[in-house]
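Board notes, transcribed. Complex of a protein with ribulose-5-phosphate.
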Amino acid sequence: MVKVAPSVLSANFAHLKEDIEKIEKGQADWLHYDVMDGHFVPNISFGYSILKDVSKVTNLFLDVHLMISEPQKYCDEFIKSGANLIVFHIEAMENKEETLQLISHIKEQNVQVGISIKPNTPVDAINDYLALLDVVLVMSVEPGFGGQSFKEIALDKIKDLASRRKDNNYNYLIEVDGGINETTGKQCKEAGVDVLVAGSYVFNSEDCSQRIASLK
Ligand SMILES: O=C(CO)[C@H](O)[C@H](O)COP(=O)(O)O
Ligand SMILES: [Fe+2]
């Protein structure tokens, strides 16, 4: 069964704890935590001090999506604050050496590691790292904002990643993020996705549990 990772970007921060309790009760699998720096993306969300507080009120697996420049500068703070998985963007990296160093650095701390690709970035851009990754995060919207429409280009990338995994015995999970609802979630599942991130679809509803259940 597909895993569901509600994005707390769409939660109400004035009662974040209650919103997290709702998704826990609704059988969410992971909590997706979107970090935006106003530089890599044109929006600012929250940093590691809020993650630390979040980690104290939930046992959900903390999936940290770093939409920031120079992720190598900040990732240790997110790890110290409770991240179980750190996903950084390939577009934020200068070169292969820097990327390999960051992957090793995260793994050495017994934290899972993933790389994300924006809608216009091909899967080939991360081919050299696929054997090392726990997660590949396919963006199905331009990163920066919740509530956007799903871009179909993600479906081909999910299929491509599923076939590269099969052909090479890789172990990564394929995660998709942006514009996920009942319809697009089903399309992604059929393409071979393992984890659905959903922000507005889950939180812009009176009944988060029903939304999570419908995605599953
Ligand atoms: O990374 C993100 C945006 O950059 C969010 O995870 C994503 O947009 C979730 O929101 P929604 O499900 O409303 O599209
Ligand atoms: Fe995200």
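The domain at 3-215 is CATH 3.20.20.70 (TIM Barrel). The pocket of ribulose-5-phosphate (ligand 1) is lined by residues 7, 9-10, 32, 34, 65, 67, 141, 143-148, 177-180, 197-201 (CB under 6 Å).
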